[in-house]
Design a protein that fits this description.
alpha/beta; Ribosomal Protein L4, Chain: A; 2 domains; 6-stranded mixed beta sheet; 6 helices; 6 strands
Length: about 200
């Protein structure tokens, strides 16, 4: 069993949550994490680049000068790739870089990433997150009291305007919902911060 401390917003430990590693896959599957990370990275590529081939640029097909007898190197038309303004010899075409993983594999990879956070001590659980008004200083103070001084992924149950507006100006802070937790966000940020209730939903 793994013991995870539970804090309040002031950074004081108020409880301990015992977690069975089997609910998170039992072990950190590094190969699966690598596969998921490559997939999410590849899916961010647009692949919309395109250049013109020699048959697509404007220009005559007339041969510039005769093949032999001029002393010049032989050449073709003005659209030849070696001419200024000619088409590309190896033109680029739009390409779909997207990759796919089975749903069960993605979920298991996400659980492996969460388990790695627990083992490294980079998972912070809160009893609740309560803000009365939009104030960046309140969230920054909470991070400082929890010992968060590097990048943090704040997972909330649903969109929360007050919390989002309060945290969006803090450097290296990423907000997401519990349902949208994925390997890309988890591994890009050092600390995962969420409430105890939300974490129990992930384990269910």
């Amino acid at each position: 069993m793994l013991d995870i401390p539970v804090f309040n917003q002031s950074g004081q430990q108020v409880d301990t949550l015992k977690v069975d590693p089997a609910k998170l896959g039992g072990e950190v599957r590094k190969e699966l994490l690598k596969q998921a990370l490559v997939m999410y990275h590849a899916n961010q590529r647009q692949g919309t680049v395109q250049t013109k081939a020699r048959g697509e640029v404007a220009g005559s097909t007339r041969k510039l000068f005769k093949q032999k007898g001029t002393g010049n190197a032989r050449t073709g038309g003005i659209r030849n790739p070696i001419k200024v303004g000619g088409g590309h010899a190896k033109q680029k075409r739009p390409k779909d870089w997207r990759q796919a993983m089975p749903k069960k594999a993605r979920r298991l990879a996400t659980k492996s990433a969460i388990l790695s956070k627990i083992q490294a001590g980079d998972l912070k659980l809160l009893t609740e997150v309560k803000l009365d008004a939009v104030k960046t200083k309140t969230v920054a103070t909470m991070f400082k009291s929890l010992g968060i001084d590097r990048s943090v992924l704040l997972a909330i149950p649903e969109k929360h305007d007050t919390l989002q507006k309060s945290a969006r100006n803090i450097d290296r802070t990423t907000l997401t919902t519990v349902e949208q937790l994925n390997v890309w966000d988890l591994l890009r940020n050092r600390t995962l911060l969420m409430t105890k209730a939300d974490f129990e939903k992930v384990l269910a």
